[in-house]
Amino acid sequence: MLIVFKCSIYKKMARINWSFFIGSAAFLFFVYVECKEKSTFPKTLKDIEKLVELEKIKNKIRGNIQQIKENKSIVEPVPTTVLPSPRPVLIISERADRNDCMIFHLKNGNVVVEEAPSQVDLWVYIKESKKKKKKESKRNTTEKNKGRRLKLIVTYEEQKLSTLIVRVQKSMWHKIEMPISVIQNVFQTPNKTLNLCITCKGCNKRYKALLLHNDNSNNTKRKNRAKPKISDTNRLWPFLVLHIKSQ
């Protein structure tokens, strides 16, 4: 009887242990499935990088919110001040005693320059005279292809101010930069008058610098022609451009 009783007890305990093992295994499997479905762990390297960037953005937003709560002033970049560009003033030349000289009045009519400029440019128009087609020499053909080399020398009171060397192929304007020191000295004079002379080395009948008296040099050939308008002649005369700093 005792042996039969012990065997029945062992069988009941074995059943209880086996059912407990099966229940535990089922519970663990259920937990594993739930964790796998709800898992937020990244699977690839790109997912990790996205999480890092999102974390940085979150931290930045939290920092800004905390800064606003603490009433701290947010530092903003100071806008840079835009300096005004120099204001150009144009002065047309006038006739002088010599054919190669011209006068610029810095105080004449509507043009009033009260302060010395930061930059001065002299503009001279070089014209190419077109001739009828004929047999050209080798020198003329090379001159036509490469252009003619000219040298413009600007003087003031027999003092050399500036020189420009150009190779001219067609009619166009050319800029000559002038020294500011001479212009500043002119501003100290009461009349504020600048007398400049231009010498063109290399100019000929085909290429020449248009000064004030060039158009009227051959009056005998133009007796029967109508006189040109003042606006037509002035537009090709040399002129000065003064760059004055705006206040």
From TrEMBL:
Entry protein name: Uncharacterized protein
